[in-house]
Amino acid sequence: MIVLTVALILFALLSILLVIQNIRKERELRRMAWFLRSRDVEDNARLTAEVRSKGVLELDRVINDELDALQAERIRLERQEREFRQGLAGLSHDIRTPLAGAQGYMQLLDTEEDPALRLRYHEGITRRLEDLKHLLDQLFLYVQVSDADYALECSPVDANAILAESLATFYPEFSQRGWTPGIELANEVCTVRANEEALSRIFRNLIANALCHGSTAPQIRQQGSTFVFENRLHAPQLLEPGRLFERFYTFTPKGTERSGSRRGSGLGLAIVAQLAAAIDAGVTAELQEDRLVIRLCFE
To answer: What's the predicted TM-score (pTM) here?
Structure first.
């Protein structure tokens, strides 16, 4: 009888303890729910478990991990939005600059009678409008290739032949600087699966990038199915290689702008990255001392 009484008392005590524990857990869950419902999305506060059971502690950890991930994503989106606005402001300035230049030449042309000066002003207007066309073409192409439904038909093409044609279009720019690009081709023909127009645009944008930002003639190498574009930079310590393929990222240290060269729109390498993805190629960039090395790799 005594044993049964003791057993009943112990059972009652255990039941009471379980009820108390469940009540505490219920209160803890309600407190967590209130915390999540009432917290500001920008608040850095995190949950702290007042009930130290294994399940509650695990729930507390998982919730805090999710809050950390949401905060990191919010910060990333805010940075992207800020950089996008800055990029748009820079692009707007880049568009207004040639327009203002062309307008100035037109005003001079209206009052000028000297044929030589009129010809000079006509050439100035043409250059400014070409700069504007280049910027608008880059912007339109970036919007096009950024479309989620953008797709390209690929077929076997000779990448070396496309590279040669792309280099030829920049002969005047190389000649103006007195540069001779170094070309090393491991094979006479390099067949890769790509879209010819897209690959041509990739090569042209990489060459234009070297002309715009390089301090010496670029070195271009073909090694198997990989193409390497390498050139020295002014103030390489200011470059952020990890951001090179971001939209609107520009790198033009003060005092390095060249007469007659276009200022980068910050879209050229972003277009390279998008087109490379569309033809199943990989593109990477790294800084080796004062040299920027960009690799375009095909499977």
So the answer is: 0.66
